[in-house]
Amino acid sequence: MLLWDCDERIYKYTISVSVDNQTWTTVVDKSREVCKSWQSLKFEPVPVVFIKIVGTYNSNNEVFHCVHFECPDMSKRDTLNQTAESYSES
């Protein structure tokens, strides 16, 4: 996730996930940390359909600025890496 980084502001936030858009589980809690720019976030694998990012603090104003967000499926990562390595060796 990329947080606005064109000045010195800091952010705090949480990320929750859900499969039904009703029951939410917090998987990332950065509400007590100083966060800037690119954030690489990892959490235990769980089924995810919906992702909720809640900005809890911005040192400059009241708006949370998530500039870019990616959530790749890492469950097949090892298989993909092995396939890529096999391909590059041939």
Strand order, sheet with most strands: 3-2-4
Radius of gyration: 16 Å
Oligomer: single chain
Overall geometry: globular
- Percentage of helical residues? 10-25%
Total beta-strand segments = 5
- Unreliable spans: none
Order of SSEs, N→C?
EEEEEH
The chain-level structural class is alpha+beta
Task: Give the integer mean of the pLDDT values.
Answer: 87
Largest sheet: 3 strands, antiparallel
Q: How many separate domains make up the residues?
A: 1
Strand content: 25-35%
Distance between the termini: 35 Å
Task: Provide a count of the helices.
Answer: 1
Domain F5/8 type C: 7-66
Protein name: F5/8 type C domain-containing protein
InterPro entries: BTB_POZ_domain_cont_9, FA58C, Galactose-bd-like_sf
Pfam family, one: F5_F8_type_C
